[in-house]
Write a structure and sequence with these properties.
alpha+beta; Beta-lactamase; seven-stranded antiparallel sheet; three-stranded antiparallel sheet; 15% strand
Length: 375
């Protein structure tokens, strides 16, 4: 394909995204969201970006808005851990107790980094007591220490149960093994080599005016405070502490897409993050209120299954991650499409529409870019 032919094809692909943009605008018009944005890449190139509504009261969402990525942050954490694996500092199969002696008792001695990154460790998702500790501004180290006092839900490696504490412990292990604060590791191993200049872990004071404000119950002791208050913004939690512009989130996704021009990991490292590492025999569910089934998970990314939480039109080779602020990052290597979608409404103020909006956005993009012919 000549350069001019490629330009024509790319322009046609871009024009097809209008339905997605209109859909996001409708979320704002119906009052479902305060603000949202989407960015799309096809065959390794960004082809469209759209912003709608307000990032915070009276401030429009723009290309410079920095959005809390909630649990998509886990993939940044995983990338830093896998980078240390590539450097020989860690191995995914090593018992975590070799780095963190406190990970012991009740069968915890067999928990590995692979178990943590695939959510097969047996650690609990949350409890009312632990949630209250989080909402009352308990320091991260104390939260992790407390998580290790709770009984495991199952033997490590036997089932799947999504838990923020898997990634909190993985982040602690990486920091101890490398002898560096974990935010420094993420910056050095992932953000800087990828050129992600508008990705923050944690957000700094200099960008506070650009941060999207998460809608929902606000004030100390509420979910909104976790993203809007000083406690949440300064925590640098490995499970949910990253914020970024939608274009930077897209660029991060391109690190794992076939057509992406930049890599921070080897192809082997990308493969371990984006293909099922659970062994295929781990029944469980992404969230406690969903039915149990095998939940494929890489060392970081959720691998496409039949959960219905990623997108109905994605291929079985696709992978991605969502977040409680109504965001999602989905990569389909078959069609070489990357979709980054962000919003500022916490899940507890909008589920099930919370997941419906994410899936609908992904569906419209996939339909637009896989409809023949593009020229």
């Amino acid at each position: 394909m000549t350069e001019s032919e490629r330009d024509v094809t790319t322009n046609n692909a871009t024009s097809r995204l209008q339905q997605t943009y209109d859909l996001i605008d409708s979320f704002i018009e119906r009052g479902e969201l305060d603000g949202a944005a989407v960015a799309v890449a096809w065959r390794g190139e960004p082809i469209g970006e759209h912003h709608a509504g307000n990032a915070r009261p009276g401030v429009a969402a723009t290309s410079t808005t920095v959005w809390p990525l909630a649990s998509i942050s886990k993939v940044y954490t995983a990338a830093a851990v896998v980078a240390l694996v590539e450097r020989g500092v860690l191995t995914l199969s090593m018992p975590v107790r070799m780095i963190l002696p406190e990970v012991t008792g009740d069968g915890r001695e067999t928990i590995t980094l692979r178990h943590l990154l695939t959510h097969t460790s047996g650690l609990i998702y949350e409890s009312p007591e632990m949630e209250q500790r989080l909402l009352t501004q308990t320091p991260l180290d104390e939260l992790v220490d407390e998580a290790l006092t709770y009984s495991l839900q199952f033997s490590p490696g036997s089932q799947h149960a999504y838990s923020d504490y898997n990634y909190a412990i993985a982040g602690r292990a990486a920091a101890v093994a490398a002898g560096r604060p974990f935010p420094e590791l993420v910056r050095e191993l992932v953000l800087d080599p990828a050129g992600l200049r508008d990705t923050w872990f944690p957000p700094s004071d200099e960008i506070f005016g650009r941060l999207a404000k998460v809608a929902g119950p606000l004030g100390e002791g509420t979910p909104g405070d976790m993203y809007n208050g000083d406690y949440g913004l300064s925590m640098a939690h490995p499970a949910f502490g990253v914020s970024a512009t939608v274009s930077d989130l897209l660029r991060f996704g391109l690190l794992f897409a076939p057509g992406g021009k930049t890599r921070v990991l080897s192809e082997a490292g990308v493969r371990v993050m984006t293909t099922d590492q659970t062994g295929g025999n781990t029944p469980g569910s992404l969230l406690p209120d969903l039915p149990a089934q095998h939940t494929p998970w890489g060392a970081g990314f959720s691998v496409k299954g039949n959960t219905g939480m990623s997108g109905d039109l994605l291929s079985t080779a696709s992978f991605g991650h969502g977040g409680a602020t109504g965001c999602t990052l989905q990569i389909d290597p078959v069609d070489d499409i990357v979709i980054a979608y962000v919003s500022n409404k916490h899940a507890r103020t909008g589920r099930p529409p919370f997941t419906r909006r994410q899936v609908s956005v992904v569906n419209t993009v996939m339909a637009a870019l896989t409809r023949s012919p593009l020229r």
